[in-house]
Write a structure and sequence with these properties.
Layout (H helix, E strand, L loop, with lengths): L2 E5 L5 H16 L5 H11 L2 H9 L3 E8 L2 E10 L11 E9 L8 H15 L4 E7 L3 H9 L3 E10 L2 E11 L2
Parallel strand pairs: 4-5
Antiparallel strand pairs: 1-2, 2-3, 3-4, 5-7, 6-7
GO molecular function: acyltransferase activity, transferring groups other than amino-acyl groups
Protein name: GNAT family N-acetyltransferase
Organism: Bacillus pumilus
Amino acid sequence: MTVTFIPCNEQHIEELQKVGIDTFIETFQNQNKAEHIDAYVKTAFHPNQLLKELHHPSSQFYFVQVNGEVAGYLKVNMDDAQSEEMGSEALEIERIYIKQSFQKQGLGRYLINQAFEIAKKYHKRDVWLGVWEHNKAAIAFYQKLGFVQTGVHAFLMGDEEQMDLIMTKTLS
């Protein structure tokens, strides 16, 4: 199995949109109303929105590929791109998704480790993320990697407000 980590750019917009929508639906369709998911993906993964995020100097998207096929993606934010004010010493993992067909192969851990390396490259002390309070498997995964809950914030799924746990890991 050959795993590669590829920075995304404008040429990847269609694939980024597809993997973003597909993985979001795979992850949340069984616990949320279809109309809420539909409203969210139409906005969050609209090509214009993705281009705006790709062009932000403090945001970065990456694909993880397995044997040349996109298996998932990572989006990190720093400084003013963070979805919460966490300061200049923090890096946010805003999105980290692996296609179901590629899960349980160590790719989530691989992407987290890549995020840690990006944080170190930019001299960030903390890495944080938001995870839905009902996503127990993801919470356990992040705890296993050393993240601890440091707060909560609201996340809008369509017009439904949900609660995300903010989990943080301080890098050594």
